[in-house]
């Protein structure tokens, strides 16, 4: 019998050091999110807007002026959208305590109809006086902390958006210079430089195509959702259309969160006084719109070239969402597209692209994978040859029995 051999201590130490380095890198990325996130967002927006800068440069417009025009347009559209949504968001924020109270009252009435789930009553108090509800008391005590958290997150978002805008301008204005210097630092081997440049251009093309296509699709989804919410008499339909467009950038998890928000908004509005169908109608309408968009519109617009494995997309959204929150979940798919473009051009990373690439081709059976390759090829070749001979061989003429050949 073959003796069992333990791995060498040097191998164990090498893998242990690599694991510790990976864990340290993950926690470093999580703690340095204030610096890494603006850089990543600016890089992705540079990939999207760089073709427009190159087109303007070919027409004689300097890169600095074209970058300033694009960044100004982007910032102006963002500020206009925020200004249009500020008033509906402020209205919801002002009536949030009243809406929460109405929703809790409706929930209390529903809980009272179920034995064992209603609010407990004090034994020594008068009849009809319920005991304090822990859920209501918790919401009341945490309202001040929630307001402080929202204000702090808002200030952090403003600072990060300003840093991203400035960095985006400099990256667009010096994109050609930075790319040429990075290629110049590589060894003077034509194949290596061409591979690196081709990988960067492929990642830039795929990310640009994905972001532009998904942005147009989500804008259409937002318009349709706003129109449907207006028809269903949900307050502030424009706000819910904008939130639906933003949440649709997060695959799988974003639509689920949006459906929950619409159900909570229906519960806090006048729709909660009606039937169960009226209460759930905004959520059901949104889920129907999302089903049409995800199964018909997006595959037709994005195409099979950018199709990704759903399992890899979901794992990427979960990982980056855990690492950086909502911003990481939005950046999950562009980062996955960049990884796929790089792995397709690197021989060592090519197995990763097999797991990332989506395909409509059915998987082979496990029995065919366990069969020796030579046997499968031989059987296929023999079957093909026999079929070809049967089809292509001309039919032999039938023997003439009416005129027998005379004997010599």
Automatic annotation (TrEMBL):
GO cellular component annotations of the record: membrane
Pfam families: AI-2E_transport
InterPro entries found in the cross-reference section: AI-2E-like (IPR002549)
Keyword annotations from UniProtKB, A to Z: Membrane, Transmembrane, Transmembrane helix
Keyword Transmembrane helix: yes
Localisation per UniProt entry: Membrane
UniProt membrane topology term: Multi-pass membrane protein
Example GO biological process: transmembrane transport
Major localization listed first in the record, in broad terms: membrane
Residues of the signal peptide: none
Family named by the database record: Belongs to the autoinducer-2 exporter (AI-2E) (TC 2.A.86) family.
Database matches in PANTHER family: BLL1467 PROTEIN, TRANSMEMBRANE PROTEIN
Protein name: Uncharacterized protein
């Amino acid at each position: 019998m073959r003796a069992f051999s333990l791995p060498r201590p040097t191998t164990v130490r090498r893998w242990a050091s690599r694991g510790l380095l990976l864990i340290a890198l993950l926690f470093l990325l999580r703690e340095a999110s204030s610096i890494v996130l603006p850089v990543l967002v600016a890089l992705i927006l540079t990939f999207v807007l760089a073709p427009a800068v190159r087109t303007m440069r070919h027409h004689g417009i300097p890169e600095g002026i074209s970058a300033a025009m694009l960044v100004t347009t982007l910032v102006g559209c963002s500020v206009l959208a925020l200004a249009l949504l500020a008033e509906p968001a402020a209205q919801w924020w002002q009536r949030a305590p009243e809406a929460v109270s109405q929703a809790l009252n409706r929930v209390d009435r529903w809980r009272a109809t179920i034995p064992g789930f209603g609010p407990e009553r004090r034994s020594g108090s008068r009849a009809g006086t319920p005991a304090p509800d822990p859920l209501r008391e918790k919401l009341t005590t945490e309202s001040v902390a929630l307001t402080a958290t929202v204000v702090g997150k808002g200030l952090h978002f403003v600072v990060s958006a300003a840093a991203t805008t400035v960095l985006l301008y400099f990256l667009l204005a010096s994109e050609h210079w930075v790319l040429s210097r990075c290629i110049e630092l590589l060894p003077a081997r034509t194949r290596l430089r061409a591979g690196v440049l081709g990988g960067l251009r492929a990642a830039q093309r795929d990310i640009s195509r994905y972001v532009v296509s998904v942005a147009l699709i989500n804008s259409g989804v937002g318009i349709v959702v706003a129109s449907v919410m207006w028809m269903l008499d949900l307050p502030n339909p424009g706000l819910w259309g904008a939130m639906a467009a933003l949440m649709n950038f997060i695959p799988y998890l974003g639509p689920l969160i949006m459906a929950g928000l619409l159900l909570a908004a229906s519960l806090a509005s006048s729709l909660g006084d009606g039937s169960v169908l009226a209460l759930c109608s905004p959520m059901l309408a949104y889920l129907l719109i999302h089903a049409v968009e995800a199964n018909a519109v997006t595959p037709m617009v994005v195409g099979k070239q950018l199709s990704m494995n759903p399992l890899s997309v979901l794992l990427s959204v979960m990982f980056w969402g855990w690492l950086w929150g909502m911003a990481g979940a939005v950046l999950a798919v562009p980062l996955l597209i960049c990884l796929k473009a790089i792995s397709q051009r690197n021989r060592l990373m090519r197995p990763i692209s097999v797991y990332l690439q989506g395909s409509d081709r059915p998987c082979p059976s496990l029995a065919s994978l366990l069969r020796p390759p030579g046997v499968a090829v031989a059987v296929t070749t023999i079957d093909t040859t026999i079929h070809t001979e049967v089809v292509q061989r001309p039919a032999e003429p039938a023997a003439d029995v009416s005129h027998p050949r005379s004997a010599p």
